[in-house]
């Protein structure tokens, strides 16, 4: 269907791509807007919201603790080798703590939860779409955005910061174990440097990021699931796309959030 | 005749370049059972979805209780939908809920009944569809025919004014077919509901229908009482109801 001269083909592709991004952003925004509107209309769906908070939060504890621990541990190890080159080993603790609270805690946790919960949202809503369960909700005069999407988005926004606090804490403990117990840094100094260098704002900015990433991964998961077409294959496609799209968005928005906040 | 609770007026619907409905005109009289017959893939489910606003026509009108629903917003549409119950062709049960919760769902959403009352109604409806005591079973633990009957129980749970049944008896054994046909006829007679039934079971259709309509090539080519249909002079109708391979309708 290439109609113009050959040289215009790349331009056409860029144009199509740009158009797709624009359309998709618009539809994402619309779904978010509808969820917000439905959040403040009765019935308030408390049961659904708590169920999703349990799913996103409680059921992600294991993976959060595990990744938090090893990210903290390896970061302590790496920074120890770096700092020992110029005799600044005592800074390992504060380096680990700053990196975790500002950056690694929110990003790594969000990527893990995107893979665990965001993908599940896409798969579940996608299955409900292709098996007409979403139509059944409409028929029974229940709005599926209120019943399915809003609780998941809210759960993401609320639970991600909680998980990130846990990941930060576990990661710092892991840094302590590696730095103090395994590599012999003085315990008192290790802790004193953390207290000295880590501000409350480092933690709170990290948690704002976490809430934003929680919104991103649940919104994208719901969006991909809600608009699934094409049977079981379509559900698979939506699930993959949800993980890829939310991971990319998390990494890109992380840069801009950091640039704006710090 | 004024008392048509649902009326489709010159409804057209295409999916991509496939012109599925090519000017449907159909009246559903209040308090009666209308059976729609037609070929597989002909657009019967699509017609049903238009009646409840799940699909919007490309052109034409869908009038429910005197109001055109094609231009309605979500809120207005919900008011209309509360008068309906619908059995989907593939049942569309919520697979995160057990059978009892599925049947209870519309009751929880739209009535202020107590838990005990709801449990009683649920047990009652499940018994009516021949599935007493399956409350705790998940949809994935049921056979296709059982899922359909749970879907049926869910559709009639609120005792709605209008019930849409998409192939209620397909996939059931002959005895269960008869039982479900009786249930549809009883529900209609007892509560005076309006029923629209899609069916491939011609014998069953004669049993429950006050009126029948045949869909062929995107249009309603015949309507009338079961006797009118039986005695139709249209060769297409005759071939279809007699289930013959030879005739104006192409087989394979
Ligand atoms: N959402 C949709 N998107 C695209 N095409 C569709 C959609 N729904 C239905 N169709 C097409 O419309 C046609 C009619 O479908 P429909 O489900 O109404 O058939 P039917 O008469 O109910 O058949 P059956 O008796 O086998 O259930 C089919 O060819 C189908 O491919
Ligand atoms: Mg069908």
Question: Could you explain how this protein is built, in words?
Answer:
The complex is a heterodimer of chains A (262) and B (252). By secondary structure, chain A is an all-alpha fold. Chain A has one domain (43-261). Chain A is 84% helix and 0% strand. Chain A contains 9 helices and no strands. The longest helix of chain A has 39 residues, at 92-130. Chain A is globular and about 65 Å long. Chain B is α/β, with parallel strands linked by helices and 252 residues long. Chain B has 2 domains: 1-83 and 161-252, 3-Layer(aba) Sandwich (Rossmann fold); 92-159, no CATH class. Chain B contains 9 helices and 10 strands. In chain B, β1 (4-15) and β2 form a beta hairpin. The termini of chain B are far apart. The mean pLDDT of chain B is 94. Chain A binds chain B through residues 124, 127-128, 131-133, 135-136, 138-143, and chain B through 49, 52-54, 74, 78-79, 81-82, 84, 86, 88, 90, 92-96, 105-106, 109-110. The structure holds adenosine-5'-triphosphate and magnesium ion (MG).
Largest protein interface?
Answer: A-B, 14 and 22 residues
CATH class of the largest domain in chain B: Alpha Beta
Which strand-content bin applies to the residues of chain B?
A: 25-35%
The number of helical segments of chain B is: 9
- Listing every helix as H and every strand as E from the N terminus to the C terminus, the arrangement of chain A reads HHHHHHHHH
- Share of helix of chain B, binned: 25-40%
Give the overall shape of chain A: globular
CATH fold naming of the largest domain in chain B = Rossmann fold
Radius of gyration of chain A: 22 Å
Low-confidence stretches of chain A: none
Oligomer: heterodimer
What is the average per-residue confidence, as pLDDT of chain B, rounded to a whole number?
Answer: 94
State the end-to-end distance of chain A.
48 Å
Question: Overall mean pLDDT score of chain A?
Answer: 95
Number of domains of chain B: 2
Radius of gyration of chain B: 18 Å
Q: CATH H level of the largest domain in chain B: which superfamily?
A: P-loop containing nucleotide triphosphate hydrolases
Strand fraction of chain A equals: under 5%
Question: Quick one: overall form of chain B?
Answer: globular
Order of adjacent strands in the largest pleated sheet of chain B: 6-7-8-3-9-10
How many separate helices of chain A?
A: 9
């Amino acid at each position: 269907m290439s109609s113009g001269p050959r040289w215009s083909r790349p331009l056409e592709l860029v144009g199509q791509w740009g158009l797709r991004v624009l359309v998709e952003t618009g539809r994402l925004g619309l779904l978010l807007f509808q969820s917000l509107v439905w959040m403040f209309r009765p019935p308030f769906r408390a049961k659904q919201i708590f169920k999703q908070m349990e799913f996103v939060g409680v059921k992600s504890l294991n993976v959060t603790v595990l990744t938090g621990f090893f990210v903290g541990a390896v970061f302590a190890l790496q920074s120890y080798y770096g700092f020992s080159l110029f005799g600044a080993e005592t800074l390992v603790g504060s380096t680990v703590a700053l990196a975790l609270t500002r950056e690694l805690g929110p990003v790594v946790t969000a990527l893990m939860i995107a893979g665990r919960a965001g993908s599940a949202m896409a798969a579940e809503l996608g299955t409900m779409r292709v098996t007409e369960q979403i139509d059944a909700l409409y028929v029974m005069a229940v709005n599926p955005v209120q019943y399915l999407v809003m609780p998941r988005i809210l759960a993401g926004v609320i639970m991600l910061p909680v998980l990130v606090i846990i990941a930060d804490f576990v990661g710092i403990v892991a840094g302590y174990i590696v730095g103090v117990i395994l590599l012999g840094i003085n315990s008192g100094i290790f802790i004193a440097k953390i207290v000295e260098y880590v501000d409350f704002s480092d933690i709170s900015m990290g948690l704002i990021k976490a809430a934003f990433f929680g919104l991103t991964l649940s919104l994208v998961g719901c969006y991909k699931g809600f608009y699934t077409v094409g049977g079981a294959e379509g559900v698979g496609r939506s699930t993959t796309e949800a993980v890829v799209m939310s991971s990319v968005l998390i990494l890109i928005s992380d840069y801009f959030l950091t640039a704006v906040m710090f | 005749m004024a008392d048509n609770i649902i009326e489709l007026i010159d409804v057209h619907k295409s999916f991509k370049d496939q012109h599925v409905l090519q000017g449907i005109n159909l009246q559903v009289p209040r308090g009666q059972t209308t059976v729609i017959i037609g070929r597989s893939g002909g657009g019967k489910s699509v017609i049903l979805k238009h009646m409840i606003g799940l699909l919007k026509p490309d052109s034409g009108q869908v009038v429910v209780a005197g109001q055109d629903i094609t231009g309605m917003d979500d809120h207005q549409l919900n008011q209309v939908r509360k008068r309906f119950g619908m059995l989907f062709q593939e049942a569309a049960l919520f697979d995160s809920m057990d059978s009892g919760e599925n049947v209870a769902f519309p009751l929880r959403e739209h009535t202020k009944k107590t838990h005990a009352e709801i449990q009683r109604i649920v047990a009652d409806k499940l018994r009516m569809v021949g599935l007493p005591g399956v409350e705790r079973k998940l949809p994935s633990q049921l056979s296709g025919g059982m899922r359909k009957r749970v879907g049926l129980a869910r559709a009639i749970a609120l005792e709605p004014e209008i019930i849409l049944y998409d192939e209620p008896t397909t996939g059931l054994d002959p005895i269960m077919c008869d039982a479900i046909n009786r249930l549809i006829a009883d529900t209609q007679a007892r509560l005076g509901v309006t029923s629209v039934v899609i069916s491939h079971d011609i014998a069953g259709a004669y049993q429950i229908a006050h009126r029948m309509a045949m869909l062929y090539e995107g249009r309603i080519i015949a309507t009338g009482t079961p006797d009118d249909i039986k005695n139709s002079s249209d060769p297409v109708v005759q071939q279809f109801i007699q289930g013959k391979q030879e005739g104006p309708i192409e087989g394979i």
